[in-house]
Amino acid sequence: MELELEKQRDEAREKERELRQKELDAERDKMMQTDRLAAQRLEFEREKLKSEAKLKEQEIDVKERARNDEMKLIKRYGDALAQVISLQPEEVTDLPAYFRGVEKQFNKLNVPLKYQARLIYKYLSARARTLCSRLEPDVRDDFDRMKTAVLKEYGLTAKCFLERFNTVRKPFNDTFILFTSKLCGLLLQYFNARKVTSFDDVSLLVSDRVKSSLTEQCLKYVLSVENNLPSDRQQWLEPQRLSEIVDEYVSYTNVSGTRASFIGQTPVSDVRH
Description:
The protein has helices at residues 2-82, 95-109, 113-120, 126-134, 137-140, 143-153, 158-167, 176-193, 203-211, 216-227, 239-253.
């Protein structure tokens, strides 16, 4: 009887041991599975980091190449502009015409808008560059907004352009063709400032303004030319033709000196073309 009990106890202990062994094996398998998953996650993270690092490096390379390409592009546009534009003029009333000329060159060279303000910066005066340095980046990098800020800084008004049109003197070394071009520009800038969008031919105003600055002898010569114009045509010379005739007269007579006056002013005795 005791042997039977002992045998049963042995069998129970064996079953318990086997059960415990199974539990240990299961725990071990679970731990091994966890370790494998952890190792897989670790390997995945490692590969992910490598991929991200490689992608980041590629992005940096792309940006660097793009930056280099952009710098080359800006240099190419800058070299082209250097051949056709000059420094900002000292005469403030010439600024609108200067900017219009710059814009024409931008269009001819197909300069992208995002580069225009950056390219013109070095041609501006010290005063204008100082102003630009105080502007917000989005304004400073926008050519139109930057131009507006510069014009506003110099206080260019309709009155300013009109006074300049009426009082400007022809520089001694300039031709009347250049002088006439300057007068046309000032008058157009005056009209723009006054928001005039429709008007008849303004050439007569410019021609009269040019004639108001001529000497008595030169004016007589011009009037004689106009009097000989065909009767079925206008009895005055267009500014371009007028300036050509005056330049020819000056070159032949070798007379120098002009006076500045506004249209309708009574001539005074002085040395004039």
